[in-house]
Amino acid sequence: MGVVSTREAIKMAREAELDLVEVAPNSVPPVCRIMDFGKFLYEREKKDREARKAQTKIEIKEIRLRPKTNEAHRDFKVDDARRWLEHNMKVRVTIRFRGREITYPEIALEDLKEIAQQLSEVSAVEQPPAIEGRNMSMLLAPSKGGGKKKKDEAEKQPEPS
């Protein structure tokens, strides 16, 4: 329409039975549009809902251990972590110190490195081991290749006979 006075713009909007909506108030002169404002709000809200649905929500699971946790129990926890990583969830491995265990952080560091090594084919260390208060933790993220897909492809391939 070009540059039009405010009164004329309002008159044009009323004639079209639509609303005069200010789009860019900071520009000189301010930019306005003649549109159905209710329909505009509805479509914008609809786009926002679709965008929220499309977002992938990454869940962080956690396994908690102690420096004195025996290997058999730790292996059960590592198997759980492997399953979660294969389902594209992040896993936080936390070792909690109680009492005087805090004086031997190297034991926990060794455990965390061993767990990272066991899960290396399905994960990558996103956050290296770090002490936070009485806890030492690291964050594992699913590897880019996707551990579950590799396993499924191996099962689908026929065995040579």
Topology:
Blueprint: H1 6-15, E1 19-24, E2 31-35, H2 37-54, E3 60-65, H3 71-86, E4 90-96, H4 105-118, E5 123-132, E6 135-142, H5 147-156
Structural overview:
This protein is rod-shaped. Strands 3-4-6-5 form a four-stranded mixed beta sheet, covered by helices on one side. The protein has a two-stranded antiparallel ribbon with strand order 1-2. The chain is an alpha+beta fold and 161 residues long. The longest helix is centred in the N-terminal third of the chain and has 18 residues, at 37-54. The protein has helices spanning 6-15, 37-54, 71-86, 105-118, 147-156; strands at 19-24, 31-35, 60-65, 90-96, 123-132, 135-142. A hairpin with a 6-residue loop joins strand 1 (19-24) and strand 2 (31-35).
Radius of gyration: 29 Å
DSSP helical segment count: 5
Total DSSP E strands = 6
Can you write the helix and strand succession as a string? HEEHEHEHEEH
Adjacency order of strands in the biggest sheet:
3-4-6-5
- The coarse silhouette is rod-shaped
Are there runs of 5+ residues with pLDDT below 50, and where? 147-155
How does the major sheet shape up? Answer: 4 strands, mixed
Proportion in helices? 40-55%
Summarize model confidence as the mean pLDDT.
Answer: 85
What share of residues are in beta strands? 25-35%
- End-to-end separation in angstroms reads 76 Å
Estimated structural class: alpha+beta
